[in-house]
Write a structure and sequence with these properties.
single chain, TIM Barrel, eight-stranded parallel beta barrel
C-alpha cells in the first residue's frame, strides 16, 4: 500500500510531499488509529539516563522541525523522537529548491538551513503534550543571522526555554546548511557550550557530529563533549562527501543508503573509545533491522532513522522491531542490552 502511495508522493516536489505527509499524519483520529503500529517488545526495552525506551528506534531531527506531528509519529512505534532542529527566532531557511531525492540510491540531499517556526510557537505546542509517553529530545541550533561568537547565547536561550519541556537536548553544530556552523565543532567551544548549558538545565545533553572528519578528530570532539558533561553522543549528521553519488549536487548534506558505510565506520571508531562512557546513538544510512542490529553490536544503545522512513514508510518501526527481536533471540540474547557492543 505504501509503495503505491510513495509513487504518488514522489510525483510532487520533495517539500510538497513532506507537507502532504504532515497533513496526513496530523489528520483525523481515524487515520491515526489506522496507522497505529506501536508494539510491545520487552526484549527491546532499555532504561537510559532515567528514561524508559520501549525500543531503540528513534526519528532523527529534521522531519518534525516544528513539533506538529509528535502524537501521530509516536503511534508509528518509535521508541523516542527528536523535534527540531529549531532556533530562537523563526527563519525561512535557504532558497528553494533545497531538497532532492536520489531515488535509485534510496538517499536524499538537503540544504534546508534550519527553516522553522521559532521557539515561541514550538513551545506552545510542546506545552500541550508534555510530559509525553516516549522520550522527546529537543534538537536545538543557532539562527543563521547569529554570528558564531554569539552562538552560545542562542543555545542557552533554548536550553532555558525548554528545560521543563523535553527529556533531553541535542546540540546541533554539525549541519552543513547554516554558513560556518560546522566551524563550531571545535574543542574549546564545545567544552564551554556544554558547561554553560548544564548551568541552566538538568536535562541530559546529546552532542551530534558530522561524518566528514577523521576518526581521531571525531573521537577528540566526542570525548571533549563527554568530559564536559554530555551524556549522549550521536554519530552522525548528513555528509558533504559529494563523491558518493554521480547524481549529487555540490551543496547540502547527503543522507540515506549512500552514507551507510561511512557512518558505520565512524560510529565504530567512536564507540571503541566511548562504549559505556555515554549513551551512543548511531544514525546514517540505517535502512533495515539488519543494519540497526549491526550498529547495536558495535556499541549503539539507540539508533535513529530519517531517510529510510521516507522510502520504507509508516510500517518501518514495526518491521525493525519485529526483526530486531528475532535477531536478538537467534543469537541467544535475552535483552537488547546484552547485545550492545559485543562486536567491539
Amino acid at each position: 500500500m505504501y509503495e503505491i502511495l510513495r509513487n504518488l508522493l514522489f510525483k510532487f516536489e520533495p517539500e510538497t510531499a513532506h507537507r502532504i505527509a504532515e497533513f496526513s499524519l496530523r489528520g483525523t483520529n481515524f487515520m491515526q488509529n489506522f496507522m497505529n503500529y506501536s508494539t510491545q517488545n520487552e526484549i527491546l526495552e532499555q532504561n537510559l539516563l532515567g528514561l524508559k525506551f520501549k525500543n531503540p528506534i528513534g526519528l532523527a531531527g529534521g522531519f518534525d522541525k516544528n513539533a506538529t506531528m509528535i502524537n501521530p509519529l509516536a503511534k508509528l512505534g518509535f521508541g523516542f523522537l527528536e523535534f527540531g532542529t529549531f532556533t530562537p527566532k523563526s527563519q525561512p531557511g535557504n532558497p528553494k529548491p533545497r531538497l532532492f531525492r536520489l531515488k535509485e540510491e534510496e538517499s536524499l540531499q538537503n540544504a534546508m538551513g534550519f527553516n522553522n517556526d521559532g521557539a515561541a510557537p514550538i513551545k506552545r505546542r510542546i506545552k500541550k503534550i508534555y510530559p509525553f509517553k516516549i522520550p522527546l529530545i529537543a534538537n536545538v541550533g543557532k539562527n543563521k543571522i547569529t554570528p558564531n561568537d554569539k552562538a552560545i547565547e542562542d543555545y542557552l536561550f533554548l536550553a532555558r526555554e525548554f528545560s521543563e519541556l523535553c527529556d533531553a537536548f541535542l546540540i546541533n553544530v554539525s549541519s552543513p546548511n547554516t554558513p560556518n556552523l560546522r566551524d563550531l565543532q571545535e574543542v574549546n567551544f564545545i567544552e564551554t557550550l556544554i558547561c554553560e548549558i548544564l548551568k541552566v538545565t538538568n536535562r541530559p545533553i546529546f552532542f551530534k557530529i558530522a561524518p566528514d572528519m577523521s576518526d581521531a578528530q571525531a573521537i577528540l570532539l566526542c570525548q571533549t563533549a563527554v568530559d564536559a558533561g554530555a551524556k549522549g553522543i550521536v554519530v552522525n549528521n548528513t555528509s558533504v562527501d559529494y563523491s558518493l553519488s554521480a547524481n549529487s549536487r555540490d551543496f547540502g548534506g547527503i543522507s540515506g543508503k549512500l552514507i551507510c558505510e561511512k557512518s558505520r565506520k565512524l560510529f565504530a571508531a567512536v564507540a571503541k573509545e566511548l562504549h559505556k562512557k555515554a549513551v551512543l546513538v548511531s544514525c546514517g544510512g540505517i535502512c533495515d533491522a539488519n543494519e540497526a542490529y549491526r550498529r547495536i553490536r558495535l556499541g549503539a544503545n539507540l539508533v535513529e532513522i530519517f531517510t529510510a522512513f521516507i522510502y520504507v514508510g509508516p510500517q518501518i518501526c514495526l518491521n525493525f522491531n519485529k526483526n530486531l527481536e528475532k535477531l536478538l533471540q537467534n543469537d541467544g540474547f535475552k535483552s537488547i542490552s546484552e547485545a550492545i557492543g559485543v562486536d567491539l
